[in-house]
Design goal:
single chain, alpha/beta, ATP-binding, EC 6.3.3.2, seven-stranded mixed beta sheet, 4 helices, 191 residues, Rossmann fold
Length: 191
């Protein structure tokens, strides 16, 4: 079982090798796969806005699907002093500004409590066959996911297949699903 540091380096390198064209094509495939998830009867969906420099999944395609289905879309603003994320309703007049960390974030808006959020699309670097994920190591998403409704559904988005097993810590919050370009992994019966 590889340690988190090794896996972070591995997946950062794999992402760096992806072309812009392949990122766009795979991001569109991921959005189309996501349409098969059993999540579309919900109201509040949290989505991450990609850090382009880190070659994350482009969630713009998923954003269009959510808008087309008239869902309430929630985006975050990270506070690096507290390690917490505040969540805001994404509206037509929401002003987004790229933070010093390269994260597109709302400047202000209507704050939404994590307990109201029903589905969270989760960024990640790596994940395993049981739904354990590795992010960038700051713990923002683990803290945020713990504050969500106990019925909330957590959906990872990745360009890559799962690792066999990742070291899992008590603070880590597992995924319910992970969507990759060619398939969906369902982890609900893996624990």
């Amino acid at each position: 079982m590889a340690d988190k540091k090794t896996l972070r380096l591995k997946y950062k390198k794999l992402r760096e090798e992806l072309s812009e064209e392949s990122i766009e094509a795979m991001s569109l495939q991921i959005a189309n796969q996501a349409l098969k998830l059993p999540i579309w009867d919900k109201t509040y969906y949290h989505i991450f806005l990609p850090i382009l420099a880190k070659k994350e999944v482009n969630t713009e395609y998923l954003l269009h699907i959510l808008q087309g289905k008239d869902k309430s879309i929630v985006v975050s603003k990270a506070d690096f002093n507290t390690g917490e994320m505040k969540n805001f309703l994404l509206q037509e007049n929401t002003v987004l500004k790229t933070s010093e960390y390269g994260i597109p974030e709302p400047v202000s808006g209507i704050e939404i409590s994590p307990e109201m959020i029903e589905v969270v699309f989760v960024p990640l670097l790596a994940y395993d066959k049981r739904g354990h994920r590795i992010g960038y190591g700051k713990g923002f998403y683990d803290r945020f996911l713990k504050r969500c409704n106990s019925e909330a559904i957590f959906v990872g988005l990745s360009f890559f297949d799962p690792e066999p097993e990742i070291f899992f810590e008590a603070l880590d919050v597992p995924l319910n699903f992970c969507v990759i370009p060619k398939e969906i992994f369902d982890f609900q019966n893996c624990r």
